[in-house]
C-alpha cells in the first residue's frame, strides 16, 4: 500500500469492502457487534494508509450521507438598531453628487485591534457590541504569507511609488474615506467594481479600516517576480491584484465579480451563490448527464483551445461536453442560456485557467457536481484553501482528455464518493467564501498591510473621493443595477472573524507535500487504467 490513495487497487478494494461490509451488517442479526467490528476494520485501514486525513470524506461515503465534518460558520449580526447605509442621489441629474460623511457610532463595531498608527482618534472611539467571533477560515492565514516580503523592512513611500508603473489606480484611505488616483483604465469595469467593494467595506466597518496607501493592478497575469528581488536587491514594490503563482509576490485581493460583472451579466455573488444553491436541487446528481461540462471563451488561452480536443471526435469518447460561449451573441439575445445557476445539469464540471486564473472557479465549484480542475500554478485568495481529492478532482494539463475520461469513468462507478467530492467543494465555496468572509478577508488584509507602512499616507494631488454617491448616482444600465444590488444595507453589529496565526514553515511544507502526493496517486491510477 502506498499513500492514502494507494496504487495497488486500494481505493477500488476498499470501496468493495465497504459495500460488502454494509451489506453484511444489514443482513446480520447482531447489527451492533457487526458494526463495531466493521468500523474498527475501516479505522485500521484508514490509519495504515494515511486516509485518516480524509475521515470526514470517507465517513460521509460509508454512511451514504453528504455530510462532512461539522463546522460552525460565522455570520455577522444585524439588528433593528443597526445603523442603516443609505444612498441618496440628487433629483436633478445636472447636480454633482456629494459624498455623505459616514462615521462610527455606539452601535458600530469597535476599532481594529491593530489599527494603523496614522488613524485619527475619532475612528477609535466606538464601543464593542459583540466582543467575540469565530475563527476565520484557514485560507486567511495566507495573508501573512503575502505580506511576508515586507516584514523585515516595512513598506516605504518609495516602494509604493515604484509600484506605480504596474498599477491601474492608487487607493488612499484617510479617516475612513477613500481617495483614488487613476493611472490607466482597467479592462471593462474591473476597477469600478473593485473600488465599489472597498467602499462597501468602509461602510460596513466605519472607523475600522486604517489609513493606508496602495497600488492596484486589475489585469490577470501577476508580474512581481520573486527572482527579481532578494537580500542583495531592493525590496519588491507592493502590488495588489486578483491572482498570483508560486514565482510571484503580488498581494491577493478578492476579484471584482463578487460585486457583479455587467459585461457578461454575471450577478453579484450574494444573489448568484443562492441561485446556484437552488439550481443544485433541480436535478438529482444521479439523473444529471454523466459527462464533464465546460462552457466559456476558448480563445482566451491556448490551454483552453487544447481542451476542445476532448470533445467527441473521430469516434473517440472522452466523456467531455465542451461548448464555446459567444458573448457577443449572448448580449444580442439578452444573455439567454447564459445563466450560471442553470449549468449544474451535468455530473461533472471542468475548471481550466484562462490567461491566468479565471473568475469562473467559484461558480464552477459552487455547483455540487464534482469539479474536474485542470492543474494550474495560478491561485486567487481563497483557492489556496482547496485540497485535491477533497474539494476537487485534479486533471493533468498535459493529458487532459485521458485524465477527464478516467475521472468521469471513476465517478460513474463510485457515485457516493464522487458526490462527496462535489458536496465538499460546493460547501467550501458556499460557506467559507460567503460574502461576509470576503469582507473580513479584505479588512484583515488591509489592516495587516497598513501596519507595515513606515510613513503617514497623504491624499494624492490628483486623487478624487470615491463613495456610494459618486459611484452609483451617475451609473446606468446593468452597472447601476449591480452596484445597487451589491450595496451593503446596514453596518455590521459584530466583530470580524478572528484572524488565525501565520503558518510555520513545517505546516506549509506538509500542505504542499499532501497536495503533491494526491496528484501523484491520481496520476498513478490513470496510468494503471
Would you mind describing this structure in some detail?
The protein has helices at residues 10-27, 31-48, 55-63, 142-147, 157-162, 190-204, 269-280, 302-307, 327-332, 360-366, 400-413, 415-432, 435-452, 468-472, 477-485, 505-528; strands at residues 169-174, 177-182, 212-216, 239-241, 251-252, 289-296, 320-324, 346-351, 371-374, 393-395, 464-466. The protein has 529 residues and is an alpha/beta fold. It has three domains: 10-63, no CATH class; 121-255 and 434-498, no CATH class; 263-379 and 383-430, 3-Layer(aba) Sandwich (Rossmann fold), CATH 3.40.50. Helix 3 (55-63) crosses helix 12. The longest helix has 24 residues, at 505-528. The protein is globular, with a radius of gyration of 25 Å. It starts with 9 loop residues before the first helix and ends with a helix. The relative contact order is 0.17.
Number of strands: 11
Total helical segments: 16
Spatial shape: globular
Order of helices and strands: HHHHHEEHEEEHEHEHEHEEHHHEHHH
- Name the poorly predicted regions: 1-70, 105-132
* Strand fraction: 5-15%
Strand order of the biggest β-sheet: 5-4-3-1-2-11
Rg from Cα = 25 Å
Number of domains: 3
Average the pLDDT over all residues and give the rounded result.
83
Largest sheet: 6 strands, mixed
**Distance between the amino and carboxyl termini:** 17 Å
Backbone structural class: alpha/beta
Query: In percent, how helical is the residue content?
Result: 25-40%
Amino acid at each position: 500500500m502506498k499513500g492514502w490513495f494507494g496504487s495497488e487497487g486500494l481505493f477500488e478494494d476498499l470501496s468493495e469492502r465497504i459495500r460488502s461490509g454494509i451489506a453484511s451488517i444489514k443482513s446480520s442479526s447482531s447489527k451492533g457487534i457487526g458494526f463495531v467490528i466493521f468500523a474498527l476494520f475501516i479505522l485500521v485501514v484508514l490509519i495504515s494508509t494515511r486516509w485518516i486525513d480524509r475521515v470526514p470524506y470517507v465517513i460521509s461515503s460509508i454512511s451514504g450521507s453528504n455530510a462532512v465534518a461539522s463546522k460552525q460558520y460565522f455570520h455577522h449580526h444585524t439588528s433593528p438598531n443597526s445603523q442603516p447605509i443609505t444612498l441618496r442621489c440628487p433629483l436633478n441629474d445636472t447636480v454633482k453628487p456629494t459624498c455623505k460623511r459616514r462615521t462610527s457610532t455606539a452601535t458600530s463595531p469597535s476599532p481594529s485591534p491593530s489599527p494603523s498608527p496614522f488613524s485619527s482618534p475619532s475612528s477609535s472611539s466606538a464601543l464593542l457590541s459583540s466582543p467575540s467571533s469565530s475563527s476565520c477560515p484557514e485560507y486567511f492565514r495566507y495573508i501573512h504569507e503575502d505580506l511576508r516580503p515586507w516584514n523585515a523592512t516595512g513598506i516605504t513611500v518609495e516602494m509604493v511609488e515604484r509600484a506605480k508603473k504596474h498599477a491601474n489606480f492608487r487607493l488612499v484611505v484617510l479617516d475612513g474615506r477613500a481617495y483614488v488616483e487613476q493611472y490607466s483604465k482597467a479592462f471593462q469595469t474591473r476597477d469600478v467594481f473593485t473600488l465599489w467593494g472597498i467602499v462597501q467595506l468602509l461602510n460596513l466597518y466605519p472607523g475600522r479600516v486604517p489609513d493606508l496607501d496602495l497600488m492596484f493592478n486589475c489585469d490577470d497575469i501577476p508580474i512581481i517576480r520573486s527572482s527579481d528581488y532578494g537580500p542583495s536587491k531592493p525590496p519588491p514594490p507592493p502590488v495588489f491584484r486578483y491572482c498570483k503563482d508560486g514565482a510571484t509576490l503580488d498581494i491577493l485581493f478578492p476579484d471584482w465579480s463578487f460585486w457583479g460583472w455587467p459585461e457578461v451579466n454575471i450577478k453579484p455573488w450574494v444573489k448568484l451563490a443562492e441561485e446556484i444553491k437552488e439550481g443544485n436541487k433541480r436535478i438529482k446528481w444521479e439523473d444529471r448527464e454523466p459527462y464533464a461540462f465546460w462552457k466559456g471563451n476558448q480563445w482566451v488561452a491556448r490551454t483552453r483551445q487544447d481542451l476542445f480536443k476532448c470533445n467527441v471526435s473521430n469516434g473517440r469518447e472522452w466523456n467531455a461536453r465542451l461548448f464555446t460561449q459567444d458573448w457577443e451573441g449572448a448580449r444580442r439575445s439578452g444573455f439567454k442560456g447564459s445563466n450560471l445557476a442553470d449549468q449544474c445539469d451535468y455530473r461533472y464540471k471542468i475548471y481550466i485557467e484562462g490567461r491566468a486564473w479565471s473568475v469562473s472557479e467559484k461558480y464552477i465549484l459552487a455547483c455540487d457536481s464534482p469539479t474536474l480542475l485542470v492543474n494550474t500554478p495560478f491561485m486567487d485568495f481563497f483557492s489556496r484553501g482547496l485540497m485535491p481529492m477533497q474539494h476537487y478532482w485534479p486533471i493533468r494539463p498535459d493529458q487532459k482528455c485521458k485524465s477527464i475520461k478516467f475521472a468521469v469513468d471513476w465517478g460513474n462507478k463510485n457515485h457516493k464518493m464522487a458526490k462527496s467530492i462535489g458536496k465538499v467543494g460546493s460547501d467550501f465555496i458556499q460557506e467559507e467564501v460567503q460574502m461576509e468572509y470576503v469582507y473580513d478577508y479584505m479588512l484583515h488584509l488591509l489592516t495587516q498591510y497598513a501596519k507595515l507602512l513606515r510613513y503617514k499616507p497623504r491624499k494624492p494631488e490628483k486623487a478624487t473621493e470615491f463613495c456610494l454617491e459618486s459611484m452609483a448616482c451617475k451609473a446606468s444600465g446593468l452597472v447601476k443595477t449591480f452596484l445597487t444590488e451589491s450595496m451593503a444595507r446596514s453596518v455590521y453589529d459584530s466583530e470580524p472573524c478572528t484572524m488565525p496565526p501565520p503558518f510555520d514553515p513545517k505546516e506549509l511544507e506538509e500542505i504542499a507535500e499532501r497536495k503533491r502526493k494526491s496528484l501523484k496517486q491520481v496520476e498513478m491510477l490513470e496510468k494503471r487504467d
